[in-house]
Amino acid sequence: MKIAIMGAMVEEITPLLEFFGTYETIEHAKNRYYTTSYRGIDLVIAYSKIGKVNASLTASTLIEKFGAQKLLFSGVAGALNPSLKVGDLLVATKLAQHDLDITAFGHPHGYVPEGSVYVETDKALTELAKQVALEQKIPLLEGIIATGDQFICDGVKKEWIHTTFNADATEMEGASVAVVCDALNIPFCVLRAISDAADMDAGFSFDEFLVSSAKESAQFIIAMLDEL
Ligand code: ADE
Predict the structure, then answer these.
(1) Which residue from 77, 79, 176, 228 has the highest number of Cβ atoms inside 10 Å of its Cβ?
(2) Does residue 24 carry a catalytic annotation?
(3) Ligand 1 mean position to 120 CA, how many Å?
């Protein structure tokens, strides 16, 4: 079994590389891929750089070049659901692209012909996440993630994404990874720890909590590997 663990920023995979300790580094397509093994599972780890295009390239590479059979995304997100606070964990049930807009042709936000507004994550991986949360007594929300190539730091925009997509959190990669994994038939999950509230203070909050929230998420991913 080969599993990909992916983040968007170096801070999101550093706790993983520190935990696994030894790994091989392979350079490909202006990025670095780290391979190691853990409890008999082959792992390939990478951060994509921010945004949907970079994330799509990395997810595709992890699957098509490195042969990943499942993909776990770990990182941080801005909260849209008011019950989510900094450090809280969310596992996505489905994801949508909030900035995909051909409404001019009568389609709903996030939709392109032959696609769908939402892409669902793998139910078995979500169940695994719920089981780990229960065992470790860590609160875990199951919810909808809305992805776009924008750092959301504005109350009006935040509310629009929240209501249009019924989304609980926003980030900049998940839905594109979902499209890739769905097309290539690879079970995947997207786990995010909250770093900010996607409001006018989001930039400050993100800078303050990126490292600690990224670590929360990475530690949870390691706990999931322990149960795979
Ligand atoms: N990732 C973490 N916080 C975010 C925000 N407010 N907007 C987009 N992506 C994020």
Answers:
(1) 77
(2) no
(3) 21
- Residue 211 CA, chain-centre distance (Å), reads 15
Choosing from 12, 171, 182, 199, the catalytic residue is 12
Active-site residue flag, 12: yes
Q: What is the CATH number of the domain that holds 35?
A: 3.40.50.1580
> Tokens 């979902």, residue?
178
Count of domains for the chain: 1
Token pair of 177 as six digits: 């990874």
Measured from the Cβ of residue 131, the count of other Cβ atoms closer than 10 Å reads 14
Q: Is 59 helix (H, G, I), strand (E, B) or coil?
A: helix
Domain containing 144: what range?
A: 2-227
**Mean pLDDT, each 10-residue run in order, the chain (228 residues):** 98 98 98 97 98 98 98 98 98 98 98 97 98 97 98 98 98 98 98 98 98 98 96
Could you report the per-residue pLDDT of 52-88, keeping only the tens digit for each?
999 999 999 999 999 999 999 999 999 999 999 999 9
